[in-house]
Amino acid sequence: MSGGRARSAVVVGAGLAGLTAAEGLAARGVEVTVLEARERVGGRTHGIEVAPGAWIDAGAAYLGARHTELLDLIKALDLHTTPTTMLGASRFALGGGAGAEDGEHATRDGRFPPLNAVALGELFDHLAELTATVRPEAPWLTPDADRLDTLTAAEWAERHLTHPDARLFFPLFLGEMMAADPADISVLHMAFYLRSGGGLRYLNAFEGGAQQDRIAGGAHLLCERLAAGLARRPHGAVRLGEAVRSVAQDADGVTVRTERGASYRADVAVVALPPLLADALDLGPEPPARRAGERTGRGCAVKVNLVYPSPLWREHGLSGWSVNAEGPLLSTVDDSPAGAGAGVLTGFVTGAEAHRYAALGPREQRAAAVAQAARLFPMLPEPVGFHVTDWVNEPYSKGCYAALFGPGDWLRLGPTLTAPHGRVHWAGTETSTEFFGLLEGAIRSGHRVVAEILDGTA
Amino acid sequence: MSSVDTTPADTEGVTAIFRRVLETEDVTADSDFFLLGGDSLIATRVLSAVARTYGVELSFEDFVLAPTPAGLVELIAAAG
After folding, report:
1. If interface means Cβ-Cβ distance under 8 Å, which residues of chain A face chain B?
2. Cβ neighbours, 10 Å, residue A286
């Protein structure tokens, strides 16, 4: 950028990436305005109060010890973590046979499904081998990237997985890890994502892994506190209800225009949006590279929270964890707020199932989820609260956990993922090759952008 | 379960499998897989390696009862 150090910035998007960037810039004297389309901050984090003072996460929730920048932020914002304890047996509905005691469900200690262990081991061997070959900082330079970026994960599974149990478990695993249908992502993206998040084992684990803790009170508090801190600064502002339409740049600065007709002028802009939304912005002049491709998809997650007076399953020796071959709830987990008077069973509807479920009306959604929860955990009464968060059709997220890079995307989009377009810088968890798609990746992208703008590290 | 190309199980061989899967050299014949940070996901990778190397398919329940190289060698010998 010509004209010296930036003194003002407009940040597009008040999710964790945008607010981290905004806070970093403001802390170093830059006048920052954050524009947010929704009437709330937080992006893909969102809290729901299920009982007085008891909050749950309708969006991103989990973290682990390797998420060092997130842990630093939690401390800086005077927040705390709470462990995702999981004691007791799990429930599995993975089709007939397979140890099912009532023809459908099996109960097992721990999280291991009643499937052939050797077959699952072969699946994870294949995945570990793929994951090891990826160049995590530059996946497009991975050996054999051309082939890996062409093939979908579904085609890969078709070729490599022979045992029916491996074929059954693979899409469930991918849904849980990435909120992806195997047909929608490239093998390169699958391997990259697993590597970026710390490897198969780390990404899959609760204790000792990426799901070890939650943020007490809800992950949305990160963004709320960052925004409040920004508002307290002399030159920081967050404007809600301001959907950005265009970002134009000239020799002296950027002009950001919103759907409501407001316009904001600054030295630089930070676009902290998921790729599909960033790609839809009207940029003048057009950037040399797109932010999303033809096959870039929405992370397919619908999160369902069933609220009960208490976590009743624990009294029956059950953890609340389940894995199910049939939807809508492909997995469930005990998300009860610590020490609060509520039992919360969270169900994940992912992959192709998310589209089917999202298309149902609210009553059908409730009936299907409540009936499935009652089959899994027969001790459960009718829930006292029920929440569905459909991230797939959320216009200002277009998917969750993260964008799904389809065939061709990494080779085409990867090399310019972080390259500034003149005065326009790119943030967001999908621009972080470390912990891509996670809260940690969002924060790292925000820090990178601050360094680009103020230290000229681009 | 047995197989025609069975190799006799040896503690050294199974210890090497543990080392590779756990990504640590810190494994002896009596090391408990789960105390070394292993979990059920990567335990399956020990079982697939055992099946490939010794021609014996063990279940996850077998593994949990004997999650050490020495313990697995006994199970493999008994099954082989």
Report:
1. 110-112, 117-125, 128, 200-201, 204-205, 208-209
2. 9
Cα B63 to Cα A125, A163, A448, B30, B49, distances in angstroms? 17, 20, 45, 14, 13
d(CA A6, CA B61): 61
- Among B23, B46, B60, B75, pick the best mutation site for testing chain A contact (most A Cβ within 10 A): B60
**C-beta atoms of A117 and B44 within 8 A:** yes
Q: Half-sphere exposure (CA, 13 Å, Cβ side) for A337?
A: 25
CA distance A200 to A131: 8
Beta bridge partners of A254: A249, A266
Chain A interface includes B41 (CB < 8 A): yes
**List of chain A residues whose C-beta atoms are within 8 Å of the C-beta of residue B37:** 208
Of the candidates A449, A25, A79, the one whose C-alpha atom is nearest the C-alpha of residue A272 is A449
Interval A413-452: pLDDT, tens: 999 999 999 999 999 999 999 999 999 999 999 999 999 9
H-helix or E-strand spanning residue A283: strand A282-284
ipTM associated with this complex: 0.92
> Which one, of A193, A404, A398, lies nearest residue A295 by Cα?
A404
Contacts with B58 from chain A: Cβ below 8 Å: 117-118
